[in-house]
Amino acid sequence: MTDTPDTQAAPTDTVDASQIAHYVEAVLMTIDRPINAGKIADTLELDTPKPVTEAIKQLNADYEGSDRTFRIEQVAGGYQILTLPDYKPVLARLHRTKADAKLSPAALETLSIVAYRQPVLRADIESIRGVASGEILRSLMERNLIKIVGRADEIGRPMLYGTTRRFLEIFGLASLKDLPKVEELQKP
How far is 109 from 88, CA to CA, in rounded Å? Predict the structure, then answer.
């Protein structure tokens, strides 16, 4: 029995490396969020994600060798195709309509406290900032940058806040370990 277009098998481990790279590239071109190597391997019906990570290395070498404006980067525990920082000024002008996506200094300050101290209580955030932070926390939650990650074992069981995967994506971080160290941020 021959395969018809409806019953053709997806690629398997017998697919050569150049074909895997093409499939990986196609997957990454069609998504708007990071996807991990394991999920790509599952999609390609591979037994292990190793060929996927090797394909990503090969693709990035090809992109660099042909002077492309983008690379495959590891972000928020997955991979995503991103443009190089050199093109930021032009792209920023193109996407100026997203000005409402900018965070105020107070929101950035609050987000920084949550990122570095998580899980953190609202009272602790307000103690550090010296002002009420309820509205800012609500705004950051609406933007899906922070979320409630639990409740403290204190009287009243206050909520604990932490960052989201979206936070990692927006700031281009693979994980929270990639946040700059506090010592690096302090002025000399």
Answer: 24
pLDDT tens-digit series, residues 54-81: 999 999 999 999 999 999 999 988 999 9
Tokens of 157: 């069981």
Residue with tokens 């481990």: 13
Range list of β-strands (E), the chain:
70-75, 78-83, 120-121, 146-151, 159-163
CA atoms of 23 and 16, how far apart (whole Å): 11
- Residue written as token pair 């000005």: 99
Domain 17-88 and domain 103-185 have a common topology:
yes
Tell me how far apart the alpha carbons of residues 114 and 161 are, in angstroms, rounded to a whole number: 7
For 17-88, which CATH class? mainly alpha
| Contact between 174 and 82 (Cβ < 8 Å) | no
24: left (phi over 0), alpha (psi -120 to 50) or beta: alpha
- Domain-by-domain residue ranges, the chain? 17-88, 103-185
Q: For residues 168 and 170, give the distance between their C-alpha atoms in angstroms, rounded to a whole number.
A: 6
> Per-residue pLDDT tens for 84-108?
999 988 887 776 645 446 889 999 9
CATH class of 103-185: mainly alpha
Around Cβ 31, how many Cβ atoms within 10 Å? 14
Is the CB of residue 121 less than 8 Å from the CB of residue 157?
no
Mean local confidence (pLDDT), 30-54: 93
- The pTM score is 0.59
